[in-house]
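Work Package 3 (structural annotation) set out to generate three-dimensional models for the target panel prioritized at the project kickoff. During this period the team completed the workflow that converts sequence records into discrete structure tokens, so that structures can be stored uniformly alongside our sequence database. As a representative example, we reproduce one entry of 544 residues exactly as it appears in the project archive.
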Amino acid sequence: MAILYPLADFLPHHPNFPDSPPSYNYQGRCSQTAELLRLPRTPLVEAIACGLMLQLSENPLHGYEGKMYGVLLVQLANGEQRVLKAFSGLLHGDSVVEGWVSPIPGREEVAVAEAQILAQLTAIKQQLIELQHLPQRQEYTTLSHEFEQKLQGINQHHRDCKHQRQEQRQLLYATLNGEALRIALDQLDATSRLQKIERRQFKRQRDLMLQPLQELITITDERTRELKQQRQALSRQLQAQMHATYSLMNFLGKSASLLQLLPAGSIPTGTGDCCAPKLLHYAATHDLKPLAMAEFWWGPASANQEKIQGEFYPACVERCQPLMGFLLSGLNKNLETEILYADEWLIAVNKPAGLLSVPGRYSDRQDSVLSRLRCSLPDGKNLATVHRLDQETSGILLLARDRQTHRHLSQQFQQRLIHKVYDAILFGIVTLDQGKIELPLWGNPQNRPYQQVHWQHGKPSLTHFRVIARWENYTRVEFIPFTGRTHQLRVHAADPQGLGKTILGDRLYGCSAVTSRLHLHARELHFEHPQSRQTICLQVKTPF
């Protein structure tokens, strides 16, 4: 597939990234099990995104419009890692651009209707512009202002005349009486009536000129309201058609439209066009396993200045976050726990890599073999793990159904009566064919969970090893640990006083190779059954 890029396209120097917590998790609850699913934004995928930013900066076209971009680190069926990239909405006016993830299916199904409605919306927009710039609006404004100025002048003149008449009346009352006084007062009243008639005639003239203009403007405003309502209805119609046909797929292989996933009437414009849904949908439909994702803004700052070029951002609250639960459903389908052996006293499972043996301390680390079995089995509340495997290690894990069984099996581990065999692939060539490693291991409390060789404070540890195969720059090794120290095999492999070759994928102890998992697998487990006293021999196929 042309849009699957090697990591080297974004990380030419292949730096070694620390095994540090993600800075953000895309998350949502599984649509079937309500399990909280997470897809991290790791330092590695952020570095990949920075590589994409560098590419964008070299193309001036990408600097003209501000938008969200995203990258998704995925794993192919053969274990190789690749990168997908996407943009939100349109890029330079196009939804399909070579080398980028295509939009979610649905737009093409309503393409004809969309073109027709968009043409209608364009025509409506033009009509609204013409109505807004109606010449009579300015004519009405100008005449209305002129009449108002003249009316104010008339009113002021009449007020002055009225004041003068009042002074004249006082003088007439002081100097005249009888018929002469009556005649003089009648003349003043006649002047007042003439001024009132003049004012009414002026207003009538004003109304005769302005009323037709006002009626035309009223009709225009009503037409504007009708067009806006029509525009809104057409937009809703188009959105409803698009949301009904936009079909998203998750990692369970299930599809659903936006109308099925979100409440009616609550779907914001642009839902389904963001980077995260496009990337996850593409991965689900092409059998790609997401490992990490990052989204960032590139281009001029957004209109409200909330988004800045080069900054990472979480899933948008309105458009993307409501879809995360559905889109991530099935993401952990490769983390299913296979039960290898079970009776009324104990259970043995094949733990997948990436799943905790027991719940962690914090709320985001509760998913584990123990918590899943406790929820899925009728008597699961009494289950307890007899030993543990690292989260990155796969293989046989033993659990007890009651306290007595747990105590008996724990004693076997303490007395080193349980036989364990691990498979591992080391990054580098081990020259010895077989041997044993005895080193004192100590966990520095300031750097947990890292373990190191410490001859003064370390606890003794013993591992036998045998080389199974060598090829290119890899060595397949069989480990048989006789003690069970934390990270014992990982340190025995990586430390120069051991084999001096890290287990492939063990970034904590310095493996620089890019791979999908820690290549360490608990292949065999032999123990005495606490009740029957028979030897139970369990073995599972190594997945690498």
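Residues 6 and 82 are 5 Å apart (CA to CA).
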